[in-house]
Amino acid sequence: MGGVKPVQPGAAAVAAPVTHYENFPVASLLCPPALRAPIAALYAFARTADDLADEGNASAAQRLADLRAYRHELHRAAAGAPAAPRWAFVFGPLAAALRSHGLPVPLLSDLLTAFEQDVRMTACGATHPDRASLLAYCRHSANPVGRLLLHLYGVQDAVSLAQSDAICSALQLINFWQDLSEDLPRGRHYLSDADCAAHGVARADLAALRRSPASDRLVLDCAAWARALMHEGMPLVHRLPGRAGWELRLVVQGGLRILDKVEALRGASLLQRPTLGALDWLRMAGRALRM
User: How far apart are CA 67 and CA 123, in angstroms?
Assistant: First the structure.
């Protein structure tokens, strides 16, 4: 969906999947076998909620009703109640992961809050007033993923959590700046009011995808912000053990490589979505090794 953006399953980083929940990792070859089942359960939970919020032709009211029902099922699973038929494929495995790994339910609930916020904001064309508002959104949409993964890896110190939050928020922002050409025509506004005003860019011009020197400066400024946030969290790769650290290196480098592409377009990402190719993956692997 335009808002909650999972990253790449496989790149089990502190933030993302492969098919289309961009902010969640799914069991990859680098993931310890013992953690593949709980990570897959978390991915199914997030992916299904994303579909409820974004897929099909349901009204905003129906989407919100479904998400409320989904949240109710989450709390039933946490209480040990049997999964209802509609989402048994999600809450059966998730209940097992909750029991075996003591996953923090409030973090799962935060993800649903982000999906609900996206539905409401898209329905009324609401915008984020400033960067603080965007980071508050990331606290629900992306940061819980990293914290859930750190929980599974047994890493819970304050410094690691803060660095995880920085990486996850950066990944969410990078997804926003990558997807401008798709999100804006659909009424999804992740360039804040304050940033637009600072660069003299009108909302109507963004909605119409009218590129200008001012919009170029706006996009590049936001990309620089995301890069700084990623660098703030990068030391975490050296704090995670074994395979987890290597997966995180690849996730970090994937986000930075997308930023390279956004910046190379010099603002034209307003009109086209930058993507990664085979050579980019080789470059990412080399950079990960050098980390």
Answer: 15
Cα 279 from Cα 37, distance rounded (Å): 31
Residues 144-160: tens digit of each pLDDT: 999 999 999 999 999 99
**Model pLDDT for residues 6-50, shown as the tens digit of each residue:** 333 233 333 333 334 554 444 456 678 889 999 999 999 999 999
- Where exactly are the structural domains of the chain? 33-290
Question: Shortest CA distance to 19 belongs to which of 33, 38, 29, 5?
Answer: 5
**Cβ atoms of residues 203 and 51 within 8 Å:** no
Residue 89, both tokens: 């494929």
Report how far residue 153's alpha carbon sits from residue 148's, in angstroms, rounded to the nearest whole number. Answer: 9
Size of the chain in residues: 291
pLDDT digits (tens, 9 = 90+) for 231-266: 999 999 999 988 889 889 999 999 999 999 999 999
Q: Kindly report the pTM of this predicted structure.
A: 0.90
Determine the Cα–Cα distance for residues 285 and 291; give it in Å rounded to an integer.
10
Angle between helix 60-78 and 105-124 (nearest 10)? 180
Residues with Cβ within 8 Å of 19's Cβ and at least 6 positions away in sequence, in order, are 9, 47
Instruction: Classify 33-290 by CATH class.
Output: mainly alpha
